Amino acid sequence: MKNIILIGLPGSGKGTQSKKLSEELGYQHISTGDLIREEQANGTAIGDLATRLANQGNFLPDDIVTTLVKQKIIDSDNNIGFVFDGYPRTIDQAKSLDEFLYNRRTPLTCVVNIVVSDFVVKDRILQRAKKENRPDDKEELIPVRIQNYKNKTSAVIDYFRNRKSIIEINGEKNEDEVFVDIQNAID
Question: Cys-Cys crosslink for 27: which of 83, 141, 164, 183, Cβ 3.0 to 4.6 Å?
Answer without folding.
Answer: 83
